[in-house]
# Entry
Amino acid sequence: MPQKIEYEVIEDWEKLPEGWSFVEVAGVATDSQDRVYVFNRGDHPIIVFSPDGDFLETWGEGVFTNPHGIYIGPDDTVYCADNFDHTVRIFEPDGTLRRTLGTKNQPSDTGFVPGKSPVQKGGDPFNMVTNVALSQQGDLYVSDGYGNARVHKFTSNGDYLTSWGEPGDGPGEFNLPHAIAVDKNDRVYVADRENSRIQVFDLQGNYITEWGHVLRPDDLYIDAEENLYVAELGERAGKGPNVKVEPHAPHARVSVLSLEGEVITQFGGDVPTDPGSFFAPHGIWADSQGDLYVGEVTYSGGGRFGLVPLDCHSLQKFVRIRS
# Structure
């Protein structure tokens, strides 16, 4: 049985400049110096903090349509998925654009029509792309979710190799592949969100297994100790701005799993706005010290989560407690 891991939430960790806000934190990641990159939907899409929460810099203004997922490679290359313009952009750590995968504002043909028709078939890259991860060999694996039902594989240079997945709930099928991670043993983990499961594949997309004890997984991250962090939306009833949490339904939470799917720890309270609880965890990452960062899409200004107070947290840091 894996040893339990415990965390302590650090309230008001980040020091934003006066008058600034995140709006929604879609993703979060740390680089080799444990600097924290917050990928958000405010006026400054990439905001970088020191490990202590001091503001360092910002970049990406005017570049993104709708920030969704972020991944930082071992060489500090930054990969950003923009799901409204159907691209993955690859940056130097200072924000210099190196390459763009996909064509801006040109979604692939999957039969998906927002608000009218669900995904009818798996398509080429991309249609409302969601997130990125790297293998040990440096290949890129991209989850392509809202308007597609596929995982795409690219070389380290960004050249397209292959894809797998179709809409559905069977092995190798997806209902919103929302996030992706790759471990040191060449296994690919896909957060199949609306099927409430994590599917596991080899590097060629061959199905290995799945875990169904997660609740609408939104993001995945694997640390150096091979702990798998899962941001889970939980189960909610209804759609749109009047969505409410069912009294009997599990709330949003964070789970830490072994790479065999065993639960190491889970946390997240009953009141979503309390420190250490969650309303809509959307991005998750752990730094080299094992400290955890969780970003949430909680904006209430007429958005889809209209019941959330304006002062609800959109980014939380959890310090790992070590004996």
